[in-house]
Amino acid sequence: MAGSAKTEKFDNKTIQWINDRLPVFSMMQNEYGKFPTPRNFNYFWNFGAIAMAMLGIMIVTGIFLAMNYVPTGSMAFESIERMSRDVNYGWLLRYTHMNGASFFFIAVYIHIFRGLFYGSYKKPRELIWIFGVVIMLLMMATAFMGYALPWSQMSGWGVTVITSLFSAVPLVGDGLVTWLWGGFSVDSPTLNRFYALHFLLPFLICAVVFVHVWALHVTGSNNPTGVEPKSEKDTIPFSPYYTTKDSFGTVVFLVLFMAMVFFAPLLLTEPDHFKQFDPMQTPSHIVPEWYFLPFYAILRAFTLDISIPFTHIVLLTAKLQGVLAMFGSILLLLFLPWLDTSPVRSARYRPVYKWCLMLLIAAMAALTYAGAKPPEGAAVWFGRVGTFYYFLHFLVIVPWLGKNEKTLPLPKSIHEEVED
Amino acid sequence: MDSTLKKGGNRRDFLYLTAGAMGAVSVGSAVWPLVDSMNPAADTLALASTEVDISKVEVGQAITAVWRGAPVFIRHRTPEEIAQVRGEDWQSLRDPQKDEDRVKKAEWLIIKGVCTHLGCIPLGTKPGQPRGDFGGWFCPCHGSHYDISGRIRKGPAPKNLTVPTYEFVTDTLVRIG
After folding, report:
1. Strands, DSSP E only, in A195-317?
2. pTM of the prediction?
3. Could you tell me which residues are beta bridge partners of residue B65?
4. Which of B176, B175, B172 lies closest to B54, judged by CA?
5. Is the ipTM of this complex over 0.85?
6. Which residue from A minimizes the CA distance to B155?
7. 3-state secondary structure of A18
């Protein structure tokens, strides 16, 4: 990524002076100016840039919100209400940050879908994918801790339920939960540490984004054909072509985002989020934010203990199964580059994989529905079937298709495909 | 130096190992204060016991006390309820426990009001709340049913509701913790 030995010549003397000592301008020109990029990107390739824009918006609004926030059990809820009512533009900062989390996840989930559809995780881009999964995990932790900060009924009980997951760990579970809480229930010490970590993690995300992009600039981008660029006919310079296209896509996305902030800022917010946390009263129905629903449904899909037959010796409680499945569902993505051995990247040329991926999207939709509903009736079955397909897809179908799928003929090169 | 030729490592390896071990101990002892600072602080631990007056709880009623920031249910059980839980086959339960082992006085059931699944507060203490299929408590979060001894009977929770440490200071005063 760093500039090469032969540095550029710049007309501006100050720029030249700096560049001779620290070649940032050469680097920008190489990596974002001339950087050869496949010429056939579609709009799915906008979502990396869009996610980056959302990360920036979250950090900026977050820092200004922090200036008015009081992270103690007795003051947190009030300080957020004060922000919404009394602080100049506090409502805008708050609604942008709240809905920003949702739109950040929308962008990232589309970005991940792009990777799954066009096989962007395959050799030589395995590390890019792994850093991406790490970013997603950090985002989830950050979003979860941020949800605690308003100290509402949903905050406090969401924290209680999710931190209690760790009590499923054999032997040390209860001690671990007490340690996470800093007490014997979710209280001020819990809020305070969540605030500290909610502030820290976005900067860790920035660091991992940096290596994610660095690794991307080593291998170059994948593209909709999944065929590597072979000559100069296959690529165009990143600037002005993709700087323009990314800017356009980002603006369209931000228009939708701002429409939500201004016209429906509370559309995705549960009423219990506007009641202060009461540790003596659980709300009748706890639901996580929409972007956690599929994983929450996987957690709840397990209801039977596994025991040694005809005894009461339980090997794996339903609770521990759920916890392992939920964390496992994300961690298995780290191994996807090796689970999928198909030599063809893009689902365009993988007729069976394409439909299996669509089924995965359907399973995620079923899980989202199941996660939002109380665990009874049809929702239970949506949750079980969705969970079953999720694991079947990654652990059985994808490895099997890698060896047995009859793929379509690939174009010889990107320009041949585009110019046809 | 012929010591470098000796089998099983030379002086340099020994230095690496001891330096590495010392380094590991130093890092560990530097990290431990950070980790332990997240455990409950002295003032949190100081709230470890509470006294509850139970003289006003009539037979069949239940109250909620607060202990260490979480609820404790105190139920004054009726003779029928006691007969019911003691007449059942406890050995086939998910978390097999005799009712006799869960109470100090048969008419007073004292348990933590925290669902052993994921920490929600089960309903059933206040009049009018659902008490589940076994007449005890019902957790609204994920549908666990507890009986009148606080034992798990149905739903995802793995364990019975916890019995806290407590003692009867007098007949009408309980110290929890």
Report:
1. 235-237, 306-307, 314-316
2. 0.90
3. B72
4. B172
5. no
6. A303
7. helix
